[in-house]
Amino acid sequence: MIVTVVDIQVKSEFLDKFIEATRENHKKSVSEPGNLRFDFLQDKADPSHFFLYEAYESEEAAANHKRTDHYKRWKERVEEYMERPRRGTQTRVIEPERLRDWK
Fold first, then answer.
1. 15: how many CB neighbours lie within 10 A of its CB?
2. What pTM, to 2 d.p., does this model score?
3. 94: three-class secondary structure by DSSP
4. Cβ proximity of 82 and 8 under 8 Å
5. Could you give the dihedral angle defined by the CA atoms of residues 93, 99, 100 and 103, in that order, rounded to the nearest 10 degrees?
6. Cα–Cα distance for residue pair 81/93, rounded to 1 Å
7. Is 1 helix (H, G, I), strand (E, B) or coil?
8. pLDDT tens across 52-74, in order?
């Protein structure tokens, strides 16, 4: 399993557009083969700060996500909305250890 946490800071004037674009990406991402979770989160203390929590069954499934049309459209669309380049941190899953415990 592979989990990536993406840290995104958005320009305040683009909040609504960013949320709309990322919701669309989320809806398609959760139906991808090998996707376990795709959470879209907003920092309560800083509404311009967001996180994506992306969990996939394998490195291959995570890589395939970046080849989808919806991801490519999202990436291109939101580029101008970002205050700084997004930061993705790949993590090692410790728990839940078994795939069946993810759903």
1. 15
2. 0.91
3. coil
4. yes
5. 70
6. 30
7. coil
8. 999 999 999 999 999 999 999 99
β-bridge partners, 50: 8, 42
d(CA 60, CA 47): 33
Joined tokens for residue 76: 């291109």
The tokens of 1 are what?
A: 């399993």
- Residue segments in the chain with a per-residue pLDDT below the cut of 50: none
d(CA 11, CA 15): 7
Q: What angle do CA 50, 71, 8 make, to 5 degrees?
A: 15
Q: What are the phi and psi torsion angles at 26 (to 5°)?
A: -60, -50
Token representation of residue 77 = 């669309």
Q: Which amino acid is at 102?
A: W
